[in-house]
Amino acid sequence: MNKEVLKYSTNKFNYIHVDKIESLPMVKLSDPYEFAKFVNESNAKYVCVYEPDPNNENDIGKFFITYNGIIYWIPRNNYNTVYDMIEGMNLGLEDGNDYYLYKEMGFKTLDDFYKFKESGFKSKADYYNGRKLGFLGSFKKLVDDGIAIENPLTEDYYITVYGKEGYQDEYHVSNDGDVYYLAMEKGFRNFEDFYDAMKKEFGEGALYYDALRRGFDDVLDYFDAIEGGFSNAEEYYSALEYGIRKKDSYTLFLKLKKIMKEYNLPTFEEAFLYDIIESLPGNSYITLDAIWDKLTNDERILLTPKEKLELIAKDESDNISLYQKWYSRKFNNKFELMEYILNNEYLMSLLKYDSENDMFIKRGYDPLSSKNKGRVSGILSKIKSIFKKG
User: Fold this and answer.
1) N or C, which end of the chain has less CB nearby within 10 Å?
2) Cα separation of 251 and 236, whole Å?
């Protein structure tokens, strides 16, 4: 009987499962073909299937029959039937678990199956999708390029990243499947994007794509900019040239710089004073203390808590300025401020000093205010044109 006939003859075998094998003489047959041949020639009605004792590592599963008081057997190797074993072994699959997984997944080639098995993917669909998105070989690429670092204690690899809140975190991976599922969970579109993000230490797809949209390559700069209220990298790096890390501070900086140029003022503090006075509503009042408080305690001119800590760490002296570097000062005290305002022709054109109540009153209309110069110029132009027509 040739092997093909022997293989198909095993389809007729009836199986019964047994929990225990009696102490009988045992003969191990060389392979499933010899076993099939012996079953057929002995006219056995049943093939017994023995499950190994899970508590005995030396115990193995068996297909067997008894004949003349002797047990004839072969190892099961996790196969359910002798037919499946022959078919699996012909495919090169020694273990039944691999055979059934191969059949279940429906792979076209054993090469794809072995790659799937080693890769850590959980399903055939995930495997093919991972291959489509570039994740086959992804683990090796991350390791070879020094992005995934081996942990000798856990025998896996970790990737250092920054998460949603800007705190450092670690991702652990051991194969392509791990990399794929991690990337999908974190919102990445493909391995190319995931690789670039891990290289730059962006731990979330949403963070990575938002950073790209805003023009950021550096993860720490991105978080610093977001914390400071900046909308894009160009704006952030422009502000950073002046040591500014908050959007509202940069907005104030640009505004005061314009006022400095317009009135030829040497310091930002003077420009801030002009802005404070010009911004007052007509007929309102303000005290010297209130002006001084704005000039010295406005959050937009002060260092952030983070900047204070950085400065303290670098400077051992006790004389540390609480002001941002760009904010040049003019006044050492309220007396100097008072003297400056009273002797400033422009500011006193906007204010009246009420000595009795010790306060400044904003005049109802500010003809010299930078906000009204355009209106005044427009009105004068209209008057001139009327006289010309007359």
Assistant:
1) C
2) 11
**What's the Cα-to-Cα distance from 246 to each of 219, 235, 252, rounded to whole Å?**
17, 10, 10
Strand ranges inside 15-69, DSSP E: 15-18, 26-28, 47-50, 62-67
Instruction: Please list the alpha-helical segments (H only) found in the chain.
Output: 3-9, 32-41, 82-91, 96-105, 110-119, 124-132, 138-144, 176-185, 191-200, 205-214, 219-228, 233-240, 247-263, 268-279, 288-297, 305-314, 334-342, 345-350, 373-389
Instruction: State the Cα–Cα distance between residues 16 and 101, nearest whole angstrom.
Output: 24
For the beta carbon of residue 94, count every other beta carbon within 10 angstroms: 14
Segment 109-129, tens digit of pLDDT: 888 888 888 899 998 889 999
- Summarize pLDDT for 158-168 with one digit per residue, the tens: 999 999 888 99
Sheet of 149-151: strands edge to edge?
A: 149-151, 156-162, 168-173
The DSSP 8-state label assigned to residue 281 in this structure reads P
**pTM, rounded to two decimals:** 0.72
Question: How far apart are alpha carbons 335 and 313 in whole angstroms?
Answer: 34
Which residues fall within 8 angstroms of residue 7, CB to CB, at 6 or more apart? 33, 36, 83, 86, 87
